[in-house]
């Protein structure tokens, strides 16, 4: 008999107990952004430490300037990999409270259709339900075999929903203790109800604010309209030049470090059935605005962008004012992929802007963050093992997906711990995270536990 | 002996008396925008009516929903023209009061240099001092000859500094009574201290607000950046397309009705010595942004423009937000010249925008006023007579100038009374109208009276 079968059986038998434990955690109002709930956050960390200790972890609440971290260690067999599991025990605020069908901190199991149950409550999907899938998998391994198949370090954060102010310093100060072969991050979704997903790429981000100044004061457009440079016109011209007619970014050097996605990966994305129609339809659009000749999936997961996130200048109120403004501002961001260098992109953009400025106008730039893209190799052995383990558990084989956004902790693990992350999660797009009536599928919770048990098993082979 | 000489002598002799009368009017705090001064506004109208009656005008205070108008009539000889004189007796607020060197409503004569005196006080230049130059000219004509050389109607407004809400309805309701051969408007400046000016053109204006909508809600730029249309990008592209690389407006049909300024007029403007350096230098610029190959004077007085007066979209606050906005807005205005048709310009712009819009995006337009340009013929006999009269009075010959802005009353006279206006004023650019320490040159007041006496005389010949 394999080592995994009795663990899976144990998880099936103990599902009700695991639910009761999750409910205990969900009852704690660990809203990290509101100082009124600081004590509840601390209770959440303490509850997790006690639970991990009961499994045999060497667990402790670790103080930060904000809400505490939970760190726990458990040995594994020699030769097996050492993994760092990450999740967060803090949750989003619950207002507007009157839109909740039941109390957000009174979790319950609710049958929404025959043989279809969901766990309701704030944090059920984001991220308490998800992190507990891993804890339950460890508990079952210990119960059945008296040991864990890998050496495991656990890091639970209490500030993910409020900008993670303590994370970087904590990683830096405790790098030796937290370093592992790779990280497992459980804070993402499945592709769909039947298809598990491993996220292998996250786009990077460069944020930049640009302020164009022309005259030394606001001008009357009657007295000066014509001869006087108009910063809105200059800025519009610059922004219009950023893309060509095929949706490509024209900034010289912008595509340095961008790689073509392997054709077999593109083909596997095509099988997911995501089209311009079903991706753009729900947001009221139909025509992809990105680079011509590429699918919407590739645009979001594997292509860089230049986006204008804000623009402002002159008179913006009701009515009209015949003013020529002294300055105009735009907030511009670039999503990066592969090996694009945030510093080089920022410098290239600034040069691009400066080269388009009339000699008597000036520009000021204000940086707003920069982080490179995360790209796991599609053929990493860890990815292959996790993919096969997930494919055994779920109705459909696991897919490798990308994410158009960034998950800062993944970059931080890379920067401070020199460690890649494997992103596996069991949320669904309709879980209403951050919104009223958050839920987590009972199948996500149950099969999520089984998935982690299988992944831990697979990683040792 | 000519009819004019004794009138001019009389004005010289009576200068002190005319100053005392002006001071009486300047002491009235007729701030039209502040309801607390409504009674003072009424006193201003009543003072003017009494003064005009003392000269022999049939004058009355005329109620409006806001501050009253003053209307006065005086007969003239058969065959002489009938002119409508316009000025306004209301003034701007006076704050910040602590920046005034003397009480704004305690007018005084101040010697600022040897043989250089100015009249200080709110309204001294804008517009009480100016309108009284005309009243004093009439008084002198009556005193010397017992009659006026023309039939004269006077209209003094009390709401010019607060948007003239009652003007249009009043003109419409009293069109028969107010209609004359042409209007004399005294609310403008001289070209410089020695050179009187007749303004013969005013640019028209079309204001338009354009709102581009893409997705049906704000989007996360990580999840949707690439495929999703960005309304700021669409708007920037549209605005950038409005001008070509030579500063010309590219909207089809935009230049319909624009005429080339006669070369002798352009030459006379060149003699004024206005250059890109001295026009743009004070506002911190050096390079004319308008149509290549034209002087800044021509750009402002005789060429149409497209200006972007405001722009807004997405996140404009501090910091950064990775949002793709659902909509973006721009306020666009067009300054019109000659025979450009505001309605056609508006329609052409809308078509221009619609033609550049992705099929799944939408646009809404909000009109913000439209008025055609005012263009007096450079060789009108009235203009020639006024020019020659002014040239006799001042050290340098009068120049025909244009104005880049609009003076609404001139358009309203055209629309409601079917009447052209002759714009002659004696203000100087440094009179600090609308600001603390407003002043009017004693020479403007004195030679302004003499100028009107000469113009009235010239118009009869």
TrEMBL record, chains A, B:
Q: Which UniProt keywords apply?
A: Hydrolase, Metal-binding, Protease
Superkingdom as given in the UniProt entry: Bacteria
* UniProt cross-references to InterPro entries, sorted A to Z: Cyt/Met_Dipeptidase (IPR051458), Peptidase_M20 (IPR002933), Peptidase_M20_dimer (IPR011650)
Where do the Peptidase M20 dimerisation domain residues begin and end?
202-360
NCBIfam families tied to this protein:
PRK07907.1, PRK09104.1
Supply the name of the protein.
M20/M25/M40 family metallo-hydrolase
Q: Which organism is it from?
A: Aquamicrobium soli
């Amino acid at each position: 008999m394999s080592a995994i079968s009795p663990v899976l059986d144990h998880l099936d038998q103990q599902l009700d107990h695991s639910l009761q434990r999750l409910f205990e955690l969900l009852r704690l109002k660990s809203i990290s952004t509101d100082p009124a709930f600081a004590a509840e956050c601390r209770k959440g960390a303490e509850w997790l430490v006690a639970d991990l200790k009961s499994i045999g972890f060497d667990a402790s609440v670790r103080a930060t300037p904000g809400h505490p971290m939970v760190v726990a260690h458990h040995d594994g067999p020699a030769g097996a990999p050492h993994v760092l599991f990450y999740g967060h025990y803090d949750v989003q605020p619950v207002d507007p409270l009157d839109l909740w069908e039941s109390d957000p901190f009174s979790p319950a199991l609710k049958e929404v259709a025959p043989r279809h149950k969901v766990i309701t409550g704030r944090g059920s999907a984001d991220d308490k339900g998800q992190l507990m899938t891993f804890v339950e998998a460890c508990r079952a391994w210990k119960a059945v075999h008296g040991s864990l198949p890998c050496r495991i370090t656990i890091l639970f954060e209490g500030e993910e929903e409020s900008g993670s102010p303590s994370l970087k310093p904590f990683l830096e100060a405790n790098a030796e203790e937290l370093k592992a072969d790779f990280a497992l991050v459980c804070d993402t979704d499945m592709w769909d109800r039947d298809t598990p997903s491993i996220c292998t790429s996250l786009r990077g981000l460069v944020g930049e604010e640009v302020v164009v100044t022309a005259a030394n004061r606001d001008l009357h457009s009657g007295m000066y309209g014509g001869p006087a440079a108009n910063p809105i016109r200059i800025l519009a011209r610059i922004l219009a030049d950023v893309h060509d007619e095929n949706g490509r970014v024209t900034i010289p050097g912008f595509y340095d470090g961008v790689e073509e996605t392997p054709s077999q990966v593109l083909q596997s994305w095509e099988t997911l059935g995501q089209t311009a129609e079903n991706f753009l339809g729900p947001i009221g659009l139909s025509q992809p605005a990105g680079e011509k000749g590429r699918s919407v999936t590739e645009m979001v997961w594997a292509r860089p962008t230049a986006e204008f996130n804000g623009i402002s200048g002159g008179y913006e109120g009701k009515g009209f004012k015949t003013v020529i403004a002294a300055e105009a501002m735009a907030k511009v961001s670039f999503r990066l992929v592969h090996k694009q260098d945030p510093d080089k992109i920022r410098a290239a953009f600034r040069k691009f802007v400066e080269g388009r400025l009339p000699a008597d106008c000036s520009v000021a730039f204000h940086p707003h963050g920069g982080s490179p893209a995360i790209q796991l190799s599609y053929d990493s052995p860890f990815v292959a093992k996790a993919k096969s383990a997930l494919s055994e558990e779920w109705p459909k084989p696991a897919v490798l997906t990308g994410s158009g956004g960034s998950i800062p902790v993944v970059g931080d693990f890379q920067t401070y711990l020199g460690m890649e992350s494997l992103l596996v999660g069991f949320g669904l797009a309709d879980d209403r995270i951050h919104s009223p009536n958050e839920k987590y599928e009972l199948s996500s919770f149950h099969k999520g536990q089984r998935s982690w048990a299988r992944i831990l098993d697979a990683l040792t082979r």
